[in-house]
Amino acid sequence: MSHPSQALGDRYKWTALTNTTAAVFMSALDGSIVLIALPAIFRGIHLDPLAPGNIAYLLWMIMGYRLVQAVLVVTVGRLGDMYGRVRIYNSGFAVFTFASILLSFDPYDGGHGAMWLIGWRVLQAVGGSMLTANSAAILVDAFPKEQRGFALGINQVAALAGMFIGLVAGGLLAAWDWRAVFWVNVPVGVFFTLWAYRTLRDTGKRGGGRVDWWGNITFAVGLSAVLIAVTFGLQPYGGHTMGWTNPLVVALVVGGLALLTAFVVIERRATSPMIQLGLFRLRAFTFGNLAGLAISIGRGGMQFVLIIWLQGIWLPLHGYDYSDTPLWAGIFMLPLTAGFLAAGPVSGYLSDRIGSRGLATGGALLFGASFLGLMLLPIDFSYWIFALLIALNGIASGMFASPNSSSIMGSVPDELRGVASGMRATFQNSGTAVSIGVFFSLMIAGLASSLPHTLTSGLRQQGVPAHVAAQVGGLPPVSSLFAAQLGVNPVQHLLEPTGTLARLTAAQRQTLTGHEFFPDLISGPFHSGLVIVFAFGAVLAFLAAVASMLRGANPAAPGRERRKREHQPSTAP
């Protein structure tokens, strides 16, 4: 018969798991739900996404949320160690819900409407950071060692599933009303905020100490500068297709790296450092985070590339209207989510019994193999082969994520779990933010060499005057990419204001504004970019597998050791 206190402990750990899983799911969902809903949002606030200057609004709608999460998670994780993980976590739920309410009541149009959304998305990301930084630490405090892998696996899969379920949810909700993308958080947020305040309690050790202000400032400003540089680097500058030669971008990168170097020096001398550099002496912590960073860069970039591939090329070629492609892209990517959901909990459960290294390394290798398979696909692929490959990619991510998180969090002292959780989340969020810049840059570089000529000559063959064809062909490749992501036919969008379409024959108009003209033109240049992007993803996965192997020999799995002791014959007299 179980003791009453044990029963209460069992009940509490499942309460903690349910609440934190809902929290990280919501936080991750909001990182991606806007991606699919962007066309409806831009129409709702009457903003032309392809107008000069408006690309910046689009990039910040995507990047702002991820940038804030990458910058803040270590700080709020440290605050959780000092003042109570549950206290910071509960406050995060309240902030997240409050920002969601304000997002759904955007009173402005045009650029002012976009700035309202970007600003409150930043506050929402602050709340999301407070949730994600402390959720893993709360779980590690609540669960015994032999069940931590399973609990962290469920939590991690919820975060990853939220990223991809957001793609479908965004399409469904935006088809009804773009504000519903933000409304959906409100009832869920209110319920779980009240429940968290009523039921969760701090059960772990507190680290104490003071706030390391200089460390916090140099880290936040330094990492922000680098990630802001990535955002500006994707925008055209001067006569270049990208802005990496922009003096502002160079200054932000150099200044950001200098501040991050200063941060390391400050942390080595601080009496109460923001992060514990000593944690990097732990092999499981260091190599687990490096492996997680590499996988995060590969996964985040792949998500964008697949959306553009489906929305801009494959779906129109198969007869889907541009206005419908965002929703269907999310639906056709469901095998990826299914792979996450199937593999994550199982691998977390197995890591408690056989250790983390083998599972995480195998997941990283399978992740890379799926990239190689995608690289070999033709542009107009058979869907079932595509579905199998992205399902394998999802399974690989699930195999890797749960054991890797369990290994990282299980390697640190109890009183540093909050800051360790924040550091792990920083690697993951920074990887996702950086991946957008890396993968988009590779893709734009692949497009820039041939797309302008291909687009210009294709338009002239359909009777478009040379000067208009050259003007449309000179559209920055990043605009073509975003047009594809937004479900916009850029040819129709750009030719209508010039009056050119009215002067063409009916057959020419039908060809130019149809489903196949733009996808056919972009297919060749886009495939060149795809090969580069997926090859880079495969290299990242291989590096992640090497790092995962270097985390050290499998420690004795807690569950296995416990069962071994239970079955040993007693030596008592």
Distance between the amino and carboxyl termini: 26 Å
Structural class of the helix and strand makeup?
A: mainly alpha
Strand content: under 5%
Q: What gross morphology would you assign?
A: globular
Helix fraction bin: over 70%
Strand elements, count: 0
Summed up, the helix count is 22
Major sheet details: none
Tell me the Rg in angstroms. 24 Å
- Mean pLDDT comes to 81
Order of helices and strands: HHHHHHHHHHHHHHHHHHHHHH
Unreliable runs, pLDDT <50, ≥5 residues? 1-5, 554-573
Kindly describe this structure.
The chain is mainly alpha-helical and 573 residues long. It has 22 helices and no strands. The chain has helices at 4-44, 54-83, 85-103, 110-142, 145-176, 180-183, 185-199, 213-233, 247-269, 283-317, 325-332, 334-354, 357-376, 383-410, 417-448, 451-461, 466-473, 477-485, 490-495, 506-513, 517-549, 558-567. Helix 1 (4-44) runs antiparallel to helix 4 (110-142), helix 3 packs antiparallel against helix 4 (110-142) and helix 4 runs antiparallel to helix 5. The chain is globular. The model is unreliable at 1-5 and 554-573 (pLDDT under 50).
Comma- or semicolon-separated keywords:
single chain; 573 residues; mainly alpha; 0% strand; disordered N terminus; disordered C terminus
Please specify the SSE layout and strand pairing.
Layout: H1 4-44, H2 54-83, H3 85-103, H4 110-142, H5 145-176, H6 180-183, H7 185-199, H8 213-233, H9 247-269, H10 283-317, H11 325-332, H12 334-354, H13 357-376, H14 383-410, H15 417-448, H16 451-461, H17 466-473, H18 477-485, H19 490-495, H20 506-513, H21 517-549, H22 558-567
